[in-house]
Design goal:
By secondary structure, this protein is α/β, with parallel strands linked by helices. It has nine helices and 16 strands.
């Protein structure tokens, strides 16, 4: 497959602004593109673009990106810019594969924010198998970490800043240190009140998440609430147990080998649409071109050669499975 063709497609996709909630232009581009290939895509009630051959294996990607932090640029076989790896390289791989092989695919809206696209899709479709395309450096991620995301409004006490009483920021730091011993804790955001007034901070909101590689989240939730509720109001934002693929990773592995790639396994530490699908009984595996670590930053990039390889993997699905 022509690398320049793949690069041109990634560039077109990347230049279409599709931040969460603003995916319409990209959806229309995909519908037009798919129709030119001879397919009959549909846009469902929430905006997902769906190509359905009534088979039991799906390939998914998401349309949206985070807020743009860098514009598209290229350097040799590398493409840089917001969304190139997460998730437009995967979209490109799917579109290129569809030129040679037909398979079920769905492009979800709003993965980066609410997850409403995959949530709706999982609710209205019977459980099936899915290859959820995300940047994994072409590793077969049959293991998906769980997550417990929550927010705590730590309460202090107002006073003149020169005569502090209960400083909400200091209390929040104390809470964070207590929670860190419970597991892999990521700090996602911290805000305090008041701002720009010489007053001891009386409220500090901390957004955090635990990433869980094994076991059940329920015990961790109980232990966290027991500690955090002593500091203020706790709001639970997302809960998902870790899970593993049952069969679909083996199907993907065969397709990877047929593409001439030495299969590598890995795990997905971040929330993806696979979580919503798994909650409804789907068998999922995460796979795709790109490096997750650099996504959402100005360093985000993808190697176009990996996009071409990913498209070959998808083409091979028809050879080993009735897609």
């Amino acid at each position: 497959m022509n690398i320049e063709k793949a690069k041109c497609l990634i560039k077109k996709l990347a230049k279409i602004d599709s931040q969460s909630g603003r995916e319409k232009e990209l959806s229309e581009f995909l519908v037009s593109y798919l129709k030119r290939l001879g397919y009959s895509p549909k846009i469902d009630e929430v905006g997902n673009v769906v190509v359905d051959f009534k088979k039991d294996l799906w390939v998914t990607a998401h349309l949206d990106t985070v807020e743009r932090v860098s514009d598209f640029r290229e350097m040799g076989n590398l493409c840089f810019g917001t969304g190139v790896a997460d998730d437009k390289a995967s979209i490109a791989a799917i579109l290129l594969a569809l030129e040679k092989a037909a398979f079920n695919c769905v492009f979800f809206v709003d993965e980066e924010e609410t997850g409403i696209g995959s949530q709706h899709f999982a609710e209205v479709r019977k459980p099936s198998k899915a290859i959820v395309m995300e940047p994994t450096e072409l590793k077969i991620c049959s293991k998906h970490w769980g997550v417990f995301e929550f927010q705590v409004d730590v309460v202090g006490e107002k006073s003149h800043a020169s005569m502090p009483k209960k400083n909400a920021i200091e209390l929040a730091i104390e809470l964070i240190n207590k929670l860190k011993v419970k597991g892999k804790l990521n700090l996602l955001g911290i805000w305090s009140k008041p701002e720009n007034i010489y007053v001891t901070p009386y409220l500090c909101t901390v957004k955090m998440e635990y990433l869980i590689s094994s076991g059940f989240v329920s015990k961790l939730i109980f232990e966290t609430l027991e500690i955090a509720e002593k500091y203020g109001k706790v709001k639970i934002l997302e809960v998902a147990d870790p899970f593993e693929s049952i069969l679909v990773h083996k199907i993907l592995e065969k397709a990877v080998i047929l593409a001439g790639i030495e299969p590598e396994t890995g795990y997905m530490p971040s929330w993806t649409d696979a979580v919503n699908l798994n909650k409804k009984g789907w068998d999922t595996v995460v796979f795709g071109p790109g490096n997750l670590e650099n996504c959402h930053t100005e360093r985000e990039y993808v190697d176009v050669r990996d996009v071409v390889l990913a498209s070959r993997v998808l083409e091979n699905l028809r050879k080993i499975y009735n897609v």
